[in-house]
Amino acid sequence: MSSRPELQAPPEIFYDDTEARKYTSSSRIVEIQAKLSERAVELLALPDDGVPRLLLDIGCGSGLSGETLTENGHQWIGLDISQSMLDIALEREVEGDLILGDMGQGLGLRPGVIDGAISISAIQWLCNADKSSHEPRLRLKAFFGSLYKCLARGARAAFQVYPENLAQRELILSYAMRAGFAGGVVVDFPHSTKKRKEYIVLTCGPPSISTAVPKGKVEEGESCSDDESSGDEENQTVSISDRHRPRKKQKTNKKGKGREWILRKKEQMRRKGNTVPPDTKYTGRKRKARF
Fold first, then answer.
1. What is the pTM of this model?
2. If we measure between CA atoms, which residue out of 69, 88, 255 comes closest to residue 158?
3. Do residues 140 and 172 make contact, with C-beta atoms less than 8 angstroms apart?
4. Which of 157, 171, 176, 288 pairs as cysteine with 117 (C-beta 3.0–4.6 A)?
């Protein structure tokens, strides 16, 4: 059986009372969670003016990462799908507000009220179809669309992730860009097997100089030149993605748009996560002038 939790069971089942308590009582996990949360807060690049911000902790679990937000002087809202995890968070009397919910169904928060968002080891769960009704692309679309709405203009989101492969990372990034975010991937310690960590860093708004992706951390003695951060898998950053590309002019023939063109367009819409009527023998058939 795979060691990845998201491949063993849905999160609300995997993190039952026993697993949730074991996760929270592990001193090793608590230490790792604190370090990852500190780095995520650092990547948010919040103004150092002493004003507390309202932050969102997605997949907050038992509130370990929320404690880091509290220590940094911020208020926070935690969202998690596991009732067992949230029960332990209540036992531990964390200072954030807790919400039981599925991030794949959308966040349901008021527009523009969140100053930043973090997530530790949670976003990759969206790429799994745990139920027959789950479609990963639709869940990613709902999540990033609702996140973009609730973030203040210019606010950042920093998600520490463990993508199963490169295709999964690109899938997550592509739906973030479609929602309107600018950003990319920050890789800390890219040449270390144990210390390597990936963060998806997004900014609410179109790409600009101020939304450039931060540099990843490296070991002492390693170089960190711009030549090494061109977007390769082994480098510490992936260059900023731009969703505002000029549209190509579509070629149309004099005969109009036939059945093949319609089927191709419908397939493109399905890949984007849109609801499309099924293909039938009547698809693309020209109607008669009158019945």
1. 0.71
2. 69
3. yes
4. 157
Judge whether 82 and 104 are in contact, CB under 8 Å.
no
Of 236, 142, 245, 153, whose CA–CA distance to 196 is shortest? 236
Contact 79, 60 (CB under 8 A): yes
Hey, what are 239's tokens?
A: 């260059």
User: 88: buried, middle or exposed (CB in 10 Å: 19+, 13-18, 0-12)?
Assistant: buried
Could you give the CA distance from residue 226 to residue 90 in angstroms, rounded to a whole number?
Answer: 46
Q: Which two tokens stand for residue 91?
A: 């036992």
- Written as six digits, the tokens of 264 are 């191709």
Own/partner long-range contacts of 32-37 (Cβ < 8 Å, ≥24 apart): 33/64, 33/65, 33/120, 34/64, 34/65, 34/67, 34/68, 36/65, 36/120, 36/121, 36/160, 36/197, 37/64, 37/65, 37/67, 37/68, 37/69, 37/118, 37/120
Q: Report the alpha-carbon distance of residue 229 to residue 42 in Å, rounded.
A: 20
> pLDDT by residue (tens digit) across 235-255?
444 444 444 444 555 555 555
3-class DSSP assignment, residue 7: helix
- β-partners of residue 227 are none
At residue 286, does pLDDT exceed 80? no
Backbone phi, then psi, for 53, in 5-degree steps? -105, 160
Q: Is 117 helix (H, G, I), strand (E, B) or coil?
A: strand
